[in-house]
């Protein structure tokens, strides 16, 4: 159920909240009252992927619970660097679908524009945790090159802002980018993939909502929420502001062992998302990224779990169970 635990952050602006995010495993455990002896942790630096957890997100964790599903998504554990850990640094082979820096063009008619090189939270299962964003971040010169590419590819009808998290871009710069895209006639839709409205809902400002609402594009915002405990009053208010501007709201979830691989948890998530105007979209199987194998579960279990969801929920609340296979023409549906 939606809680009130993050109301303490109501008066803070999102940039200040980001600056005070927790960036160390020991500090994170102390903040949630979990002894370091309860979990075999490592520092983010040792893992090669720093700990980063905004305090509004941390405030939703159950104090004293070392198995809290929000905590385990962001805490660096020894399992990430186990000798028998499997996975690759580029599980989706995105490098071979990068025609120019900042663009990933895998599917017909739509492209990803890598708008930011960092996130507001470092999820330990992130499939881009090893990505060298410095090679693709949109400097002014690279943005011009990316826009030139978009103008030349007249079959592109949708641009997806991704990263990193595109909403780490300021309202002013984001507005300027949207205006550049609006000037390309064959682009009809804008999609934004972001976790910020979940982990720092204060990022959804009046200015941002109004700019997206005024766009000539059909705008879709896809949030990333994995567990019903991630939803609170502030998240609901953020979604309401976006919805008031006519923005389509969807959610994608990653299926994670010991986090949300439970039919009751996913059923509650779908119901709670719908209450705040967000439709379930995708339920992703884990991408085989190096350092995240401990989150994976057998495919057979995933199929059975999804079948249970289909039996319990109306069709519009059942996210599509998908995997992403490099070189595929789309996401691969799993039945």
TrEMBL record:
[4Fe-4S] cluster binds at residues 119, 123, 126. GO terms for molecular function: 4 iron, 4 sulfur cluster binding; isomerase activity; metal ion binding. It comes from the Bacteria. Keywords: 4Fe-4S, Iron, Iron-sulfur, Isomerase, Metal-binding, Pyridoxal phosphate, S-adenosyl-L-methionine. It catalyses: L-lysine = D-beta-lysine. Pfam families: Radical_SAM. Its cofactor is pyridoxal 5'-phosphate; [4Fe-4S] cluster. InterPro entries: Aldolase_TIM (IPR013785), EpmB (IPR022462), Lys_aminomutase/Glu_NH3_mut (IPR003739), rSAM (IPR007197), rSAM_sf (IPR058240). The modification N6-(pyridoxal phosphate)lysine is found at residue 331. PROSITE patterns: RADICAL_SAM (PS51918). Belongs to the radical SAM superfamily. KamA family. This is L-lysine 2,3-aminomutase. It comes from Aequoribacter fuscus.
């Amino acid at each position: 159920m939606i809680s009130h635990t993050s109301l303490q952050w109501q008066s803070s602006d999102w940039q200040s909240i980001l600056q005070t995010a927790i960036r160390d495993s020991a500090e994170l455990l102390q903040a949630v009252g979990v002894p370091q002896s309860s979990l075999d942790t490592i520092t983010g630096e040792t893992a090669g992927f720093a700990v980063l957890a905004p305090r509004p997100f941390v405030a939703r964790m159950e104090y004293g619970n070392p198995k809290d599903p929000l905590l385990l998504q962001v805490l660096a554990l020894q399992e990430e660097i186990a000798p028998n850990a499997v996975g690759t640094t580029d599980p989706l082979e995105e490098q071979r679908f990068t025609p120019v820096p900042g663009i990933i063009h895998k599917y017909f008619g739509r492209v990803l524009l890598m708008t930011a090189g960092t996130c507001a939270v470092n999820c330990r299962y992130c499939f881009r945790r090893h990505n060298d964003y410095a090679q693709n971040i949109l400097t002014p010169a690279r943005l011009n090159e990316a826009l030139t590419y978009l103008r030349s590819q007249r079959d592109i009808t949708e641009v997806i802002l991704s990263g990193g998290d595109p909403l780490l871009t300021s309202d002013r710069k984001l507005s300027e980018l949207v205006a550049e895209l609006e000037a390309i006639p064959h682009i009809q839709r804008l999609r934004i993939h972001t976790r910020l409205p979940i982990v720092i809902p204060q990022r959804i400002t009046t200015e941002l909502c109004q700019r997206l609402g005024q766009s000539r594009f059909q705008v879709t915002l896809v949030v990333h929420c994995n567990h019903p405990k991630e939803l609170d009053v502030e998240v609901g208010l953020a979604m309401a502001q976006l919805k008031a501007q006519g923005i389509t709201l969807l959610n994608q979830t990653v299926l994670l062992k010991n986090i949300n691989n439970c039919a009751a948890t996913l059923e509650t998530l779908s119901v709670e998302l719908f209450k705040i105007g967000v439709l379930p979209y995708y339920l992703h199987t884990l991408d085989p990224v190096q350092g995240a194998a401990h989150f994976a579960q057998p495919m057979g279990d995933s199929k059975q779990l999804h079948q249970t969801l289909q039996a319990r929920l109306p069709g519009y609340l059942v996210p599509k169970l998908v995997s992403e296979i490099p070189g595929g023409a789309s996401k691969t549906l799993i039945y």
